[in-house]
Amino acid sequence: MNGWLACAAVLLVVGFTPVVWGVATGPLARRVVAQNSGTSVVCLVMLLLAEGYDRPSYADLALVLAVLGPVGTLVFARLLADEPGAAPPGARLVTALVAAVTVPVVLALCVATGPGRATVKLVVIGALLVAGNVVVSRTLSGSYEESDEATRG
């Protein structure tokens, strides 16, 4: 077992324990935020596994997950609830934590990968993860609706 696989195992245990708790308990808004965080954790684990096993196809799976994860979260929130209600108090904190974990993981992988197309792909995946979490967090907290009402009225 190398360091990348050990980091993936630690991230999976440390990152997925609160996700499972958040998805299993609480109001719909907390479950949706936890589900989105789980997508981000799995994406980062896939990137670490790609480096640990030297399998670039795992990075491709992480790219697909980084694109579809936030979209799936928004569709889930829209279709399964008329009004998701107020975002849980820690929604922005969860977004900040995911971004705080995403940036060092992606930077370490970029350094290990070296210059090239794979590094560009890693940067794109990291940017998609951070941007997707910010968009989902703002949407669930109602920030977009408030700004829409301000521009209309």
Q: What's this model, at a glance?
A:
The chain has 153 residues and is an all-alpha fold. Helix content is 85%, strand content 0%.
Search tags:
153 residues, mainly alpha, 6 helices
What is the rounded Rg? 16 Å
Uncertain runs are 144-148
Helix content: over 70%
How many helices does DSSP assign? 6
Question: What's the arrangement of secondary structure elements?
Answer:
Layout: H1 3-24, H2 28-53, H3 56-79, H4 91-113, H5 117-141, H6 143-152
Helix pairs in contact: 1-2, 2-3, 2-4, 2-5, 3-5, 4-5
Can you walk through the features of this model?
The radius of gyration is 16 Å and the shape is globular. It has 153 residues and is an all-alpha fold. α3 packs parallel to α5 (117-141) and α4 (91-113) runs antiparallel to α5 (117-141). The chain is built from six helices and no strands. It has one domain. The N and C termini lie far apart (59 Å). Mean pLDDT is 82; it is low at 144-148. The longest helix is centred in the N-terminal third of the chain and has 26 residues, at 28-53. It is 85% helix and 0% strand.
